[in-house]
Design brief:
Helices cover 72% and strands 0% of the residues. It is mostly helical. The relative contact order is 0.20.
C-alpha cells in the first residue's frame, strides 16, 4: 500500500502533462496573427500536435520507463541518437523556459507597476529569483514538484484561460467593437502565402503545442501507465485547443494588434477587460494567478527533461559526477548546472535592443532544436513498429503500419515547414538587422545540435554504472 501511495494518479498526470503543454503565456503570440490564428491553430494541431501526441502515446505505453524520449530513440536507433534526442529536449527547455521566465516578470509587473514589464533589469531580476527558487523546490523531490505543477495549472492556467474566454464572450454580447476584423471568410482567415514572414508565426503556434511527450519521463511513476497515459493525452489535446484558440481570440479582440506585447499582452487584455467592466482592482489578483501558473509550468519543465538526461547519464553518456541524486531522488547537480545555463542565456538575450525580438529569438532557436528532436521521435515510432512489433502497446495508432506511416509523414512535413519559416523574422516583429537575427539562429541551432555528438564521442567506458 505504501508503494502504491507514491504512484502518480491519473489526475496528477493530467495536471503535469497539461503544465508541460497548455499555457496562457502563448495567447499574445497567437493574437498577433489576428483571425489568421484559426488557420495557424488548425495546421499546428492537425499537422503537429495530434501526430506527436499519438506517437508519444504509443511509445509511452509500449516503453513506460523513466527516460521518455531517450528510451524510445535509443530502442529504435541506438545509444548515440538516444543521447542526442534527450540532450535536444533538455536544450529546448534551457532556451524555451527563458520566455516563460520573462512572462512571469511581465505578469508580476502589473501587480506593482505595469511599466516594469518593459524593464530589462526587472525582467532579469525576476528570472533569477523565480528560477533559483523553483530549482530549490524541484530538488526536494517529485511529490513537491507535482503539487506545485497541479496547483499552478489549476489556479494560474485553467482559471485565467477560462476567465479570459468568458470575458471575451461578455465583451461581444455587450455590443463592443473588437480590435480585429472578426468576419469568417476565406480572405480574413487564410493568410497570404506570398509573404513568408507572415507564415513565421506558425512556429509560435507549433511551440504552443510542444511538450506533450515530456510527461512521459514520469511514465514509470504513474498508476497503470498503459491505461492512464493515453487518457491524459486526450484531455491535454482538448484543453490545449480550447484555451489557445478561444483565449487568443479574446486577447486580439480587446488589444490593438500593433500594441500587443509578447511578454505582457495577456495582462494588457485583462487590464482592458477589467477596466471596462469596472473591476480594475482585480488586475493585481489575476497577475499573481497568471504568474503562479507560469511558475508551475517552469517547475514542471525543470524536472521533466533532466530526468531523461539522468537516465542517459546512468547509461554512461555523462561523467559519474552528473549521475548522483540527493536523498529525495532528484538529480541535484544537473539541476544546478541547468539553472546556471538558463541564467546565462536569459541574461544574454536581454542584451538585444528589443524585448519582443529577444523573446522571439529565444522561441525560434528553441523550436529549431525541438523540431530536430521531434523528427527523431516520429521516426523512432515508425522504426519500432518494424523493429519491435511484438512489444505490447496499450495504445496503438489505428490503421496498422499504414496509419503509422501517415501520421509520421504528416508530422515530418509540418516540421519541415517549421524549419524553413523559422529563419525568417516575422513581419509583425521588425528585427532591424535580419542578417544578425539569422546568424544568431544558425549559430545557436548548430551549436545546440552539435554538442551532444561531441560529448558522446568523448565518453569513456568508466562512466557507465556497473550492474
Amino acid at each position: 500500500m505504501a508503494k502504491r501511495s507514491n504512484k502518480m494518479s491519473l489526475f496528477t498526470l493530467i495536471m503535469i502533462s497539461s503544465a508541460f503543454t497548455v499555457s496562457v503565456r502563448n495567447l499574445p503570440t497567437e493574437a498577433e496573427t489576428g483571425m489568421h490564428m484559426i488557420f495557424f491553430a488548425l495546421i499546428a494541431a492537425i499537422g503537429f500536435f495530434i501526430p506527436v501526441a499519438l506517437v508519444s502515446a504509443e511509445l509511452a505505453t509500449g516503453w513506460p520507463k523513466q527516460g521518455g524520449i531517450y528510451v524510445w530513440v535509443k530502442e529504435a536507433f541506438g545509444d548515440r541518437l538516444g543521447f542526442v534526442s534527450i540532450w535536444l529536449q533538455w536544450t529546448y527547455m534551457i532556451i524555451g523556459i527563458i520566455s516563460q521566465l520573462y512572462f512571469v516578470g511581465g505578469s508580476l509587473a502589473f501587480i506593482f507597476a505595469p511599466h516594469l514589464a518593459h524593464s530589462k533589469i526587472f525582467l532579469f531580476s525576476t528570472l533569477l529569483v523565480v528560477l533559483w527558487a523553483t530549482t530549490f523546490f524541484v530538488a526536494r523531490g517529485q511529490k513537491t514538484s507535482s503539487t506545485i505543477s497541479s496547483v499552478g495549472f489549476l489556479g494560474g492556467v485553467l482559471f485565467p484561460g477560462a476567465l479570459i474566454i468568458a470575458l471575451g464572450i461578455v465583451y461581444f454580447l455587450m455590443g463592443n467593437t473588437p480590435q480585429i476584423n472578426m468576419a469568417f471568410n476565406m480572405k480574413n482567415i487564410i493568410p497570404s502565402f506570398s509573404q513568408i514572414t507572415t507564415l513565421v508565426l506558425l512556429v509560435g503556434f507549433m511551440r504552443t503545442f510542444c511538450g506533450i511527450e515530456a510527461s512521459s519521463s514520469h511514465a514509470a511513476e504513474v498508476e497503470n501507465p498503459k491505461r492512464n497515459y493515453p487518457i491524459a493525452i486526450f484531455f491535454v489535446v482538448v484543453i490545449g485547443l480550447l484555451i489557445n484558440v478561444l483565449g487568443s481570440l479574446s486577447v486580439a479582440a480587446v488589444v490593438p494588434q500593433k500594441e500587443i506585447s509578447l511578454l505582457a499582452g495577456l495582462m494588457e487584455a485583462f487590464t482592458d477587460f477589467f477596466t471596462k467592466f469596472g473591476m480594475a482592482w482585480f488586475v493585481p489578483v489575476i497577475g499573481i494567478l497568471v504568474a503562479g501558473g507560469a511558475i508551475g509550468a517552469i517547475n514542471t519543465w525543470l524536472m521533466g527533461p533532466v530526468k531523461g538526461l539522468l537516465a542517459s547519464a546512468k547509461s554512461g553518456q555523462l561523467p559519474p559526477y552528473f549521475q548522483k541524486v540527493n536523498k529525495s531522488g532528484a538529480p541535484q547537480r544537473l539541476l544546478i548546472i541547468q539553472a546556471i545555463l538558463i541564467s546565462l542565456v536569459g541574461g544574454g538575450l536581454l542584451l538585444m535592443p528589443n524585448i519582443n525580438i529577444a523573446f522571439w529569438t529565444s522561441v525560434a532557436i528553441a523550436m529549431l532544436v525541438y523540431f530536430t528532436m521531434y523528427s527523431l521521435m516520429l521516426l523512432a515510432g515508425l522504426r519500432l513498429r518494424y523493429k519491435e512489433p511484438k512489444v505490447n502497446r496499450a495504445y496503438k495508432i489505428p490503421g496498422g503500419n499504414f496509419g503509422m506511416w501517415f501520421v509520421t509523414m504528416l508530422g515530418l512535413l509540418t516540421l519541415l515547414c517549421g524549419y524553413i519559416v523559422a529563419f525568417f523574422p516575422p513581419s509583425q516583429l521588425p528585427a532591424g538587422n535580419e542578417t544578425i537575427y539569422e546568424t544568431v539562429l544558425i549559430i545557436g541551432a548548430i551549436t545546440a545540435i552539435g554538442i551532444p555528438f561531441i560529448i558522446y564521442q568523448l565518453r569513456k567506458p568508466s562512466w557507465k554504472i556497473k550492474g
